[in-house]
Amino acid sequence: MIYVLLSNFILMKRRTFLDFLMKGAAASILPLHLVGCDDPNVLSKYKGLLPMRTDQLNLIEGVSMQILLKRGDEFGKQLFFGSNNDYTAMLPMSPNRYMLWVNHEYLNPLFVHKKFVSAEKTKKEVEIEMKEVGGSLIEIERLDSGELKVVQDSIYNRKIDGLTSIPFANQINILDQDSALGTLANCAGGKTPWGTFLTCEENYDGFYGERDYKTGNRIPSEHYGWENHFDCPPEHYGWVVEINPKSGEAQKLTALGRCAHECATVFQLEDGRCVVYTGDDANDEHLYKFISKRPNDLSEGTLYVANLELNLWIPIDIEKQDILKANFSNQLEVLIRLREAAKLVGATPLDRPEDIEIDPITGHVLIALTNNKPKGNFMGSILKLISDDNNHESLSFSHETFLAGGEETGFACPDNLVFDQKGNLWFTTDISGSAIGSEPYKAFGNNALFVVPRFGERAGEILRIASAPMDAELTGVSFVPDSNELLVCVQHPGEESKDLDNLTSNWPEGKKGVVPKSAVVILSGEFFDDLWSISMR
Ligand code: FEO
Ligand code: CA
Ligand code: CA
Ligand code: CA
């Protein structure tokens, strides 16, 4: 494997960095330790994993794991941890307590019902499925031993699932209703500076279908057929949802538009208003940015879409765009039919924009572009977007490819990203379960977690840290606040299983015949300590 040194990424001069901090250009910068033990060779003893195909969560030496929660675990009275965990985020509540939010993106009917169930299922079966999606709110305690543990029966533990009534922000009505039944397809998300979680409804059409706006006809759902028992319009899904961690109150933020939202990454401006970056994860869909009207409130603002030919953010505002006026009757209709509106104003088609993170040192925005198979892009890349004047409010920018997937770099199909407090970039890959192990992905083995050290002798290398069990994807990477423990989700192990007698994975129990389970895992250990001991000189 040829390792790649990254431009604009390593060994930023200390003076430049301090200038940057003093300009306040990075209000969300995390407290970096400018003085450390600084042995630039401290990582020399570590060897990245090679691609592999095993039914285990394999880790490099110096990293250990603890399973925090897996599907079906009870974390309160009649509260069972849902399926296919994706985004995770933790907020500190008191010195040894945190609130953890975990997305449950979708479910595998074979594992949930323990039998093959077609889309022609009973209402009871649909209700069981509705409890498997959405998200879980869980209080976590740090014990004196240092271990993190679920607080069983915490008053804050709850689920926001497919059966929870969730209002639209600002009392907006969609198809004469001011609330939606449930949240679903919750992929990635974000955190706000005022201590709420954001969860993003991605492939919502799999549950209640979609609308064909040319004919007005309903397109049935491909996978789950929930519309056969619950009369919920597709327009109630595909939003970013804000969750209060303590009260569990939720609202659907219509101002951010409706699409297959992957994530919602927030940057707070000096005056308290927020910029939110979000991608629409489908072939040739788009990258959006929202600027809120008021501080600490995402219910109103202006939505923009990226045009990478012009390097401009284009407003998707019916008052500013005659072409939108000609095609839609009001701004709510524009927001509901966001994909159409974006194309009318000149949005650039992208290769499945997934997770987005803001580099805590440079302020640059990184966007995972997973792939675009119809266009022949199988490997994907990470795009870097640099706002003019390093100002996230700016409507102009420049961009370049930050890292390209492929055999030279050793990864394919980047998806989830996270920066740690030191500015090291961590990312996971999402080669689809059906494609893992066959061309053109054979050389990459199972999906994996990678880190790109920022400082020291190995800066810019792409190290494979963890390798996922069979068919699984690693998702939900986030750091425990003020700690170098990394939360990672193992999502959809064994998803290629055709029936219960032919399971392709038995993770995590590892016993033949036992149904695989998605789980939230905490990674920690000496590797993290060593990585974090290297700092800027
Ligand atoms: Fe749910 Fe785009 O991954
Ligand atoms: Ca994803
Ligand atoms: Ca992320
Ligand atoms: Ca994905």
In short:
By secondary structure, the protein is mainly beta.
Q: Which helices and strands, and how do they pair?
A:
Elements: H1 14-22, E1 58-59, E2 64-70, E3 74-76, E4 79-80, E5 85-94, E6 97-104, H2 109-113, H3 123-130, E7 134-142, E8 148-150, E9 158-160, E10 165-167, E11 179-181, E12 186-191, E13 197-201, H4 205-208, E14 210-211, E15 218-219, E16 240-243, E17 250-253, E18 265-268, E19 274-279, E20 283-285, E21 287-294, E22 297-307, E23 312-315, H5 322-327, H6 331-336, H7 338-344, E24 350-351, E25 353-358, E26 365-369, E27 381-387, E28 397-404, E29 414-419, E30 425-429, E31 448-452, E32 463-467, E33 473-479, E34 486-491, E35 519-524, H8 526-533
Antiparallel strand pairs: 1-32, 2-35, 3-4, 5-6, 6-7, 7-8, 7-9, 10-11, 12-13, 13-16, 14-15, 16-17, 18-19, 19-21, 20-24, 21-22, 22-23, 25-26, 26-27, 27-28, 29-30, 30-31, 31-32, 33-34, 34-35
The structure holds MU-OXO-diiron and calcium ion (CA) (3 copies).
One calcium ion binds next to loops.
